[in-house]
Amino acid sequence: MLVTAMGAVMVVAVAQVSQPWRGILVAWLIFGGSVGYLTVRLTRHYHAYMVIPPMRKPHPTRALRLPEEAPHRAESLKIIVSKIGATGRRTI
């Protein structure tokens, strides 16, 4: 509602300007306003980008080792080979 009221006030204000200057004012509001808005947005994004702290290098990680007492379960796995067709399908 506020934007509508502001637009109505702007239309009345532009209508009060004499004819040769009215076209220039409208062109300036349309093109200058949009270019200015775009410039302000790009400037804000640039400054927000520059404020972001640089990424830190990750700490070197040590290789994970399994505990020595971990049981080896590989002996309990079985490979099942399907004999359908020429190529067998192996499933663990």
Description of the molecule:
This protein is mainly alpha-helical and 92 residues long. The chain has a domain at 2-51. 51% of the residues lie in helices and 4% in strands. The chain is built from two helices and two strands. The chain has helices at residues 2-15, 19-51; strands spanning 80-81, 90-91. The protein has a two-stranded antiparallel sheet with strand order 1-2. Strand 1 and strand 2 (90-91) form a beta hairpin.
SSE layout and pairings?
Layout: H1 2-15, H2 19-51, E1 80-81, E2 90-91
Antiparallel strand pairs: 1-2
Task: Summarize this entry quickly.
With 92 residues, this protein is mainly alpha-helical. Helix content is 51%, strand content 4%. It has helices spanning 2-15, 19-51; strands at 80-81, 90-91.
Give keywords.
2 helices; mainly alpha; elongated; 92 residues
Residue share in β-strands = under 5%
Rg from Cα = 36 Å
Number of helices: 2
- Distance between the amino and carboxyl termini: 68 Å
Structural class: mainly alpha
Number of strands: 2
- Characterize the main sheet: 2 strands, antiparallel
Judging from the principal axes of the Cα atoms, what is the shape?
elongated
Can you list the strand order of the major beta sheet?
A: 1-2
Kindly report the average pLDDT value: 78
The amount of helix comes to 40-55%
Encode the helix/strand succession as letters: HHEE
Low-confidence stretches: none
